[in-house]
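The authors assume throughout that readers already know how a fold can be written as discrete tokens. In essence, backbone conformation is discretised, so a fold becomes a row of integers matching the chain in length. A single example would do more here than another paragraph of explanation. For illustration, here is how one protein appears when written out as sequence plus structure tokens:

…
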Amino acid sequence: MPWIRRRAHDADPPSGRLPDLEFLALVRAGLERYAPGVTEGSELKGNSLSSPQGWAVGVAPRMHGGPRHYDLVALPDTSLQPDVPCFIDCVVAIGDDAPTAARTWVETAGACMLELLDRRRHFADHAGPDDERGVPDWHCIASGAVGLGADVAESRRLQKSLVDANVLHHIADTFAADLDSPYFNGIKIFYGGQPGKVQAEIRVNGERHEAASAALVAMGLPEPTAFTMVRSYALLLPVREDGTGPLYPPMKGVIR
């Protein structure tokens, strides 16, 4: 994890932002609730959470957004040197609510990391390239949709709308050519905001994908009636040449 080691610890974070290790402590607690025992022996050091099983989560230098924006890098197996496979996601602490931001990451990108290690559908769903919810030519590990907002019913309505829209299956042709990782490609779906000021975004391997984001807008998901955001995350893995399943990267930290 050379990029994690290089970065100096942020001793004086901006107002409203937790120090990296405090935020990662929230992530660790969330992962432990999600998968009891998975964080046993893990350490918080520098700006990373590292497990003796090989996985790690680090806070990267902010790539976009304000001070309450956390860019997280998940590394399912740090022993795969020199280029450690990783995927990127970001969350925002709305109203300084860092615990909810950490929980949101755990239930989406974190769930995908856990499923990549577990592989038994305990934490996220699987879909093959020919499945109704699949992405052609790729194996998909997908989290559920998580909603954020003051109105619980409205959050649930938009969550259901996002799931029912089967977004990745329908807009795969807009981003498939940009899936360049031989291990796994991270895809974030984000939709919502204030009534009349809705944002729709697809990020591929941490970068906003303009064509896919435009395709998400064109799907015509319902606008929120109150401030509400929904998001989900997926990992797209190569498929074995014989088509029998995903080509998982070699990892020592498989959960059993």
Observations:
- The longest strand covers residues 228-238.
- Confidence is low (pLDDT under 50) at residues 1-10.
